[in-house]
Amino acid sequence: MAGFVKAFLLRIVSGGCVAMSLLTPAPAQQLQDPTRPPELIGQGEETVSSGPVLQSVLIAPDRKVAIISGQAVSLGQRFNGARVVGISETQVVLRNGSELQTLKLFPDIDKHRSSAKVGAESAAGKIHRKK
Q: What's the CA gap between 57 and 52, in Å, rounded?
């Protein structure tokens, strides 16, 4: 009888060891931080724009600030030789001499006015993605 108990316990212990080996954690998968700026996500991806990129806009009652390619600039300040002449919720306008450059927060979205006949859509217009 002692041999039977010994064999039974040996099977339980060896089965437990096998079960424990199956429960070891797999290597952690690398997750990308969705809050990182676009140029830091994915090392092998193509860059869409070689020029300045509008990343964020802060509008408060007493100031307007834009983050352009990682640099915070206020209305009237200079960025790469161009003066910031306009900041809105979705875009920034830079003036370099007589040349104006508009940086959009969402460059792949176009906004179009709709006709008054369209009932369910707002008077502000439709939003279309560029293809």
A: 14
